Amino acid sequence: MVAIDIDGTLVNDHKQIGEKTKAAIKQARKQGVYVVLCTGRPLSGVKDYLEELALVGEDDYAITFNGAKAQITGTGKAIFENLLSPEQVAHLDQVSHELQLRGQIVMPNSEVITTFKNISPYTVLDAFYTKMPLYYCEPEKLATHSPAAKYMWVDEPEVITAKLKDLDPEVIADKYTVLSAPWFFEIMHPKAHKGAAVLELGKYLGLTKDQIMVLGDENNDLTMFEAAGFGVAMGNANDQIKDLASAVTADNDHDGVGVALEKYVLKKLEGKQ
To answer: Could you read off the pLDDT tens digit of each residue along the chain, which spans 273 residues?
Structure first.
């Protein structure tokens, strides 16, 4: 199985998939290798990429919401979900209002909810780019909602940095957190991260960690590199990712994914034939 991050990894800086990468993914899939897009986005936010790569069958999978959910791409059926309870979400939202730090809730049905009337422009952009409908909810009604994929603090980078210093560590002590972008601080179920997700999906598919290769570039990919048998850092990856990687490939603007698949997957498969 090959698990691939999207932004900064699968796609170039123009949000396009290179021809070498497309060809390598299709060839790997043709030879029976599971190719899994592993992303912070919902399934709706990666649908176009899945269709472009022909990864939309009943035996194709995606890890979404940064690891909170794994789905069959052809049907949308969930393989597993690790979600925050409505009570946990309501508490995090209460803390957000107390800190005056704007937040949003990402639901497993691909909706974004905010209780902030002065909505963050980053929330609007996130909903637009991931193709998730955006709704306003009164704070006191949050506890009646369904479980959530993640709670996100969404504000100016300097605001998030300053407010995190005022945060009681106990609020997030039992959760997985990651600064996925300077303006996004994500809070999730403790098992809702890419590392746990690739292992859980691998187990579902009858694979060991040594049969899992991952590719990524940023901090929300770190757990994947810690979990998988072989990790390939993009040339544009940060130093933490490169330090954990088994190998470094070309950057995302030069088909780094395609180069890695040809070198570490397709050539090995050719050698076995």
So the answer is: 999 999 999 999 999 999 999 999 999 999 999 999 999 889 988 999 999 999 999 999 999 999 999 999 999 999 999 999 999 999 999 999 999 999 999 999 889 999 999 999 999 999 998 889 999 999 988 877 789 999 999 999 999 999 999 999 999 999 999 998 899 999 999 999 999 999 999 999 999 999 999 999 999 899 999 999 999 999 999 999 999 999 999 999 999 999 999 999 999 888 765
Give catalytic residue positions: 5
pTM of full prediction above 0.85: yes
Could you give the domains of the chain? Answer: 2-81+192-272 (3.40.50.1000), 86-188 (3.30.1240.10)
Write out the chain in H/E/C secondary structure.
CEEECHHHHHECCCCCECHHHHHHHHHHHHCCCCEEEECCCCHHHCHHHHHHCCCCCCCCEEEEHHHCEEEECCCCCEEEECCECHHHHHHHHHHHHHHCCCEEEECCCCCEEECCCCCCHHHHHHHHHHCCCEEECCHHHHHHCCCECEEEEECCHHHHHHHHHHCCHHHCCCCEEEEEECCEEEEECCCCCHHHHHHHHHHHCCCCHHHCEEEECCHHHHHHHHHCCEEEECCCCCHHHHHHCCEECCCHHHCHHHHHHHHHHHHHHHHHC
